[in-house]
């Protein structure tokens, strides 16, 4: 049998590494990255809202570090130690976005398809922040609609249909496991989601200078949640709660972000149940069974998952099963409440006090 030249073997390996990833049980899947929609707004948060930019970097680390931790251990002490390590990283004010492939190598190789959906939705998050932090764009609404059209057209886009987050998508066998087993880490993740939501309503209040003036108060309140997790929360913060003005003005974008955050919860629940999913193959299969429900391409032009849409009254309320919110315990405040000084952390800790509780 004629052997291939070494340089051809090397070239083939390089091409594979550039275009694909080997899953945990030997199946190759296509791997690529997308660049955000180009425009003069790019990197505006980095330039205009550096403190918030650093918070986003900490949030990205926190999601990845949690998932990789749950893949390797369910020991409460080890998971709590991981939570504190995330807090240390967040409060170090990281100046650059973390490489999630390095932080969570097992997870990204196990389910690159889900990671691709996360990456694209997180890119939308940061692009919208950039747009509203930029003083170079005057007609922001028109540009935002173009950015969203570019986002939703991609196959990995999370759907803009409002899904039944409080109901069917939190009724799987593993649902609520992460919340119930690791309450502090869970509400720490939800605190990230609250900040991500509430920031949009702050950005609607004025130009970059005005946002720089207001954001420290919002971030201080968020740090209060990190220092003393609001364990009274029973369900993740919703866009319509943290950013009611933005959610009312751009309901499709708000739905994408709520769905994105629920997908994080679904995957954390799966990773928290090794009794149900004992192997990497079983975890991958469970994640890939849920992921298609969230992808916009599976809802248009033919809706394959209409049964997972939120009920009509919840669509109107903009909060999933809006009628069930009374059963969710204390809820997080809107950005305006924080800015007005009428909100407090659920734990009662002053937003600007102390250091993370160890």
Please tell me about this protein's structure.
The protein has helices at 6-19, 44-48, 50-72, 76-91, 100-103, 105-110, 112-133, 140-152, 177-181, 183-203, 208-227, 239-242, 244-249, 251-271, 280-294, 312-317, 335-340; strands at residues 20-22, 28-30. 45% of the residues are buried. The longest helix is centred in the first third of the chain and has 23 residues, at 50-72. The protein has one domain (33-340). The protein is mainly α. The chain is built from 17 helices and 2 strands. Residues 1-19, 320-324 and 347-358 have low confidence and may be disordered.
Please describe the topology of this protein.
Blueprint: H1 6-19, E1 20-22, E2 28-30, H2 44-48, H3 50-72, H4 76-91, H5 100-103, H6 105-110, H7 112-133, H8 140-152, H9 177-181, H10 183-203, H11 208-227, H12 239-242, H13 244-249, H14 251-271, H15 280-294, H16 312-317, H17 335-340
Antiparallel strand pairs: 1-2
Helix pairs in contact: 3-4, 3-10, 3-14, 7-8, 7-10, 10-11, 14-15
């Amino acid at each position: 049998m004629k052997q291939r030249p070494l340089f051809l073997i090397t070239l083939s390996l390089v091409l594979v590494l550039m275009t694909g990833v080997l899953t945990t049980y030997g199946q190759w899947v296509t791997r690529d990255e997308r660049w955000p929609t180009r425009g003069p707004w790019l990197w505006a948060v980095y330039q205009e809202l550096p403190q918030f930019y650093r918070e986003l970097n900490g949030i990205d680390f926190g999601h990845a570090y949690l998932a990789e931790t749950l893949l390797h251990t369910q020991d409460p002490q080890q998971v709590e130690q991981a939570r504190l390590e995330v807090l240390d990283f967040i409060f170090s004010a990281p100046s650059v976005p973390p490489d999630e492939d390095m932080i969570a190598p097992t997870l990204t190789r196990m389910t690159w398809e889900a990671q691709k959906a996360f990456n694209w939705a997180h890119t939308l998050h940061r692009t919208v922040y950039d747009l509203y932090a930029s003083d170079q764009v005057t007609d922001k609404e028109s540009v935002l609609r173009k950015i969203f059209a570019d986002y939703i057209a991609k196959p990995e886009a999370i759907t803009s249909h409002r899904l039944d987050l409080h109901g069917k998508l939190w009724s799987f066998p593993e649902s609520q496991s992460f919340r119930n087993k690791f309450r502090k880490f869970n509400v720490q993740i939800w605190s990230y989601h609250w900040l991500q939501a509430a920031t949009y309503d702050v950005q609607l209040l004025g130009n970059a200078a005005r946002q720089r003036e207001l954001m420290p108060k919002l971030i201080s309140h968020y740090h209060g949640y990190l220092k003393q997790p609001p364990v009274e929360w029973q369900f993740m913060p919703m866009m319509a709660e943290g950013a009611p003005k933005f959610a009312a003005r751009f309901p499709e974008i708000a739905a994408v972000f709520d769905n994105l955050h629920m997908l994080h919860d679904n995957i954390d629940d799966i990773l928290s149940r090794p009794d149900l999913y004992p192997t990497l193959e079983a975890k991958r299969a469970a994640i890939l069974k849920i992921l298609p429900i969230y992808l916009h391409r599976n809802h248009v032009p033919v809706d394959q998952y209409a049964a997972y849409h939120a009920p009509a009254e919840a669509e109107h309320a903009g909060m999933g099963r809006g009628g069930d919110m009374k059963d969710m315990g204390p809820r997080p405040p809107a950005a305006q409440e924080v800015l007005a000084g009428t909100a407090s952390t659920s734990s009662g800790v002053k937003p600007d006090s102390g250091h993370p509780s160890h």
